[in-house]
Write a structure and sequence with these properties.
The complex is a heterodimer of chains A (about 325) and B (about 230). By secondary structure, chain A is mainly α. Helices cover about 80% and strands about 0% of the residues of chain A. Chain B has one domain: Alpha-Beta Plaits (2-Layer Sandwich). In chain B, strand 2 and strand 3 form a beta hairpin. Classes of the chains: A mainly alpha (about 325), B alpha+beta (about 230). Chains A and B meet through helix 4 and helix 7 of A and helix 1, helix 4 and helix 5 of B. The structure holds iron/sulfur cluster (3 copies). The site of one iron/sulfur cluster has 13 residues of chain B, from helix 3 and helix 6.
């Protein structure tokens, strides 16, 4: 059986990219909100890291949606998913969440960058200014809802796969949680990477704050991966076969051990722990650690999607 | 803080209200899933007698012609296992792979547009191709791997018990008619006088992957020839 082509394969790598981007967007927003709430408050719009998140989140979610639409066999009929819907379908509910998420995301970005936008607009569009100041008054509500939507979006990609009852590796209750947590950490990594690329201070309060959350996040992710596979193996039968196949010596086994566990989790964790004790963070350090995390999460999405579909019962 | 908390609650309230208004416009076809036991006089099912089947593929051909199924895809396959035993006493096992018309159909549950649905009148699992966007979620969700994208319509397709082609004219499905050994029996599960029910009462049958809870309506009568398989 080849790694990328086999019987029963329905969803290919574009879907893995979509899953990756949706989680990334949700994660970036989540960390931008945390940064604003706990560290920066009214100065948030100055921060290259918040700016990076404000760019990454919409771009990622648009890109992801674009891939999703493009991957339909009838892309021009995409609107039907919005008009008709089915309450029992994870995809229907997910698309609903995606739409609401984008709306609230833009509202939040408008709130955060209100001063800058007002400056740019000057007196040219009084309506826009009035709308903006109205939005700013609702900021607490917008932020709260956006947190809920971002978390839903992060978990949704996992639910999307876990609804496939014929595949023991996918039909697994830990999957949505695993996708949520790894999505958050990819969002954190993207925010850091984007931030330093926008000339943010690699030793700044933002980086220290995000790194502070990143260590527990990585530990939780390792724990979830362990639970995920231990659960499959302990339940025996086809689930056990599926898990052991995925983790074995094939192509995907390498991707998992070297890519997901090695590059994606162990190295960033080691760097983070090491940086805790040493003094200054440099650009290269932040950029490399973040890239490793991103690669790891991307490989995890592919690993789950492909090995999952290999193991139909 | 007090104010912002109240604002937040207001926002969540609005969100929930929005969602419930949207609920009123829910696709009616998906309802069949929520009340699977809606009473109707007809519930179609099929039996494949693997003892009678000789693997001639007449069913596959007939289905292709009647339902205009292009090359490269098919609504029904006959899977051959074997040979078992020593020459000249060799035997094969043939089993039918096609839509099982699940009562709790995973394809229907996951379809975002309601294009995959269960016909309330007949229990047939069908596809409304006008609604299908080709997301292929149903194809991934079907544990029997019998759905495919029709190369011409670009929508999901599969066996529909000839709902549109022959049942509408009061005829038996094409594959049933074409079978030279009468290995296929089609009929109404709710009619105790039907050949289908009589056959099911006479011979022990099995259904594939029942442990997934899909409640398939394609019954197999296992061949007594050949290997005992685990
Ligand atoms: S066999 Fe597959 S396509 Fe047919 S009803 Fe069941 S899940 Fe749907
Ligand atoms: S491919 Fe068509 S029938 Fe299948 S789930 Fe998607 S929209 Fe529904
Ligand atoms: S019942 Fe009709 S659609 Fe289904 S396999 Fe037989 S001929 Fe084809």
């Amino acid at each position: 059986m080849s790694a990328f082509h086999f019987e029963g394969l329905v969803w290919h790598w574009p879907i893995a990219i979509y899953l990756f981007l949706a989680g990334l967007s949700a994660g970036a927003v989540f960390f931008a909100i945390m940064l604003k709430h706990f560290k920066l408050s009214h100065e948030a719009w100055h921060s290259p890291f918040v700016q990076a998140a404000a760019i990454i989140a919409p771009v990622a979610v648009f890109g992801g949606l674009g891939i999703l639409v493009f991957d339909l066999t009838r892309p021009l009929d995409f609107w039907k998913i919005l008009v008709f819907y089915n309450t029992s379908s994870v995809m229907s509910m997910g698309v609903l969440v995606l739409m609401a998420y984008q709306l609230v995301l833009f509202a939040w970005i408008a709130c955060v960058f209100q001063r800058r936008i007002t400056q740019l607009l000057g007196n040219r569009l009084p309506v826009a200014n009035r709308l903006l100041s109205w939005l700013v008054k609702q900021e607490a509500a917008i932020t709260g809802i956006l947190v809920i939507l971002a978390i839903s979006l992060g978990a949704y990609t996992g639910f999307l796969l876990s609804a496939l009852i014929g595949f023991p590796l996918l039909n697994n209750p830990v999957l949505p949680l695993l996708f949520l947590i790894s999505g958050l950490s990819s969002g954190a990594a993207a925010t850091l990477l984007g931030g330093v690329l926008l000339r943010g201070n690699p030793n700044g309060v933002e980086v220290r704050f995000i790194h502070g959350i990143e260590i527990p996040l990585i530990l939780v992710e390792i724990g979830l991966l362990f639970t995920f596979f231990a659960g499959l193996i302990l339940s025996g039968g086809q689930s056990q076969v599926a898990a052991l196949n995925a983790l074995g010596f094939g192509f995907w086994g390498w991707i998992f051990w070297a890519g997901v566990i090695g590059i994606g989790l162990t190295l960033p964790l080691a760097f983070n722990l090491w940086m805790k004790v040493s003094a200054d963070r440099k650009f290269a350090y932040v950029a490399v650690t973040a890239s490793f995390s991103l690669i790891g999460v991307f490989l995890l999405r592919n690993f789950i999607l492909y090995t999952g579909q290999m193991t139909g019962i | 803080m007090q104010v912002s908390k109240r604002q937040f609650l207001k926002g969540v309230g609005a969100l929930l209200a929005g969602v419930s208004v949207y609920g009123a416009t829910r696709t009616p076809q998906a309802d069949s899933l929520l009340q699977p036991e809606q009473e109707s006089e007809i519930k179609y099912a099929m039996v494949h007698d693997e003892n009678a089947c000789i693997g001639c593929n007449a069913c596959v051909q007939a289905c292709r012609e009647v339902n205009h199924i292009p090359e490269g895809v098919t609504r029904v396959k006959i899977e051959r296992k074997g040979p078992f035993g020593e020459y000249p006493d060799q035997s094969y096992r043939f089993s039918r792979v096609s839509c099982q018309h699940c009562e709790a159909a995973p394809c229907v549950r996951v379809c975002p547009t309601g294009a995959a649905y269960i016909d309330k009148e007949t229990g047939i699992v069908a596809v409304n191709s006008d609604r299908c966007v080709g997301c292929q979620y149903c194809i991934a969700a079907c544990p029997y791997q019998v759905r495919y994208i029709h190369p011409e319509t670009r929508t999901a397709d599969k066996c529909d018990f000839c709902q549109k082609s022959r049942l509408a004219q009061g005829l038996q499905p094409a594959c049933v008619e074409a079978c030279p050994t009468k290995a296929l029996t089609f009929g109404n599960l709710k009619d105790p006088e039907s050949d289908l029910v009589k056959l099911l009462k006479r011979k022990p049958s099995y259904r594939a992957k029942v442990d997934l809870g899909t409640r398939p309506k394609l019954f197999h009568i296992q061949t007594i020839d050949g290997e005992i398989m685990l």
